[in-house]
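Subject — a protein and its fold
Fields — amino acid sequence, structure tokens
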Amino acid sequence: MTEEAPPPPRRPASPVPVVRELTLTLAYLGGLATLAAVGLAAAVGTDLLALGGILASGVAFTVAGTGVVHTWVRGVDAELRRLGVGVRRMGTDPARARLRMRRRDEIGALARALDQLRSRFRAALDRERQARREVEDTNATKDAFLMAVRHELRTPLNAILGFADVLLSEIDGELTESQREDARIILSSGRHLQSLFDDVIELSAAVSHQLDLDVETTDLVPILHDVVSEQRPQARRKNLRIRLRAPDRAPLVGDPKRLRQVFTNLVANAVKFTETGHVEVVVRVSDTTLTVEVRDTGMGIPESAQETIFDEFLQAPGRFGKGRRQVGAGLGLAIVRRLVELHEGRIMLWSEEGQGSIFTVRLPVSGPIGADLREDA
């Protein structure tokens, strides 16, 4: 079937038909005036010469009035068309288009107002571009600084971690219990500092949209099984039950490393901030969405803190009991949110003080939009 061509765009209405109507109206009025003059002349007995003058005046009035109106309306029509062209140019290139109309009537006032609006828009656009350049320069400087700090500190930090491991292995001699505890503290603090460096770099890359995903078709169940297994020793030390409830398979398109990072953070937090009860990871799969819930019976998060818990450098005050020291810089959940969003997913929170928390992650089975699958050779 042959498709019908779309109708041509309608041109804006022109006042020229109005000119014709005005012309006919003036001609009609002029004719009436002439006939009235003839009747009046006949009634009072005016001679033919005077009657001719009356007729000539009526015709002249009609022609002159029609010409003036016709010229005025055509001028207005041309200016309105010019104004319309200028406005359309402003729509496509507002920074450059100008009307430049010198009329002193309402059309000129409208054109000048539009020119002023264009000038203000251009000034605002220039300010926005300048601010964006300054932000980009600041981000570049910050990233370079972070990378330099990370590089300069990694070498001595690795040495500290290495020697702490050597001390704990007692290669150079047996340690007392007090010395062994000191070495464990050195090792734990060094690893925490190393993790903090990595979190800062990761968050900086995610915020700057420099964090790329290496996506492939993967099964989330083995990843979650490993995550839960890694946290089981810590849960046992606190007498917590920890378990995974999942189907046999939960396939999706995503970055296995980043997904592991997301759920390691959530499950580790659940174990860390739960003193009694259990931690549970529940997986549900539909045709389009994979949902993972990390549930705990911990102290919960105050409602006032739930709005900002995913923000950088913020931690929920309800997650710290009386006399408990705050640990970390509040970057973990911010990174989790960024990684989930990179997968085109969502993360949500339900929590009630004294009852526990549920972090829900929903991921599209098809993976992030526009992602290219990694192909193994």
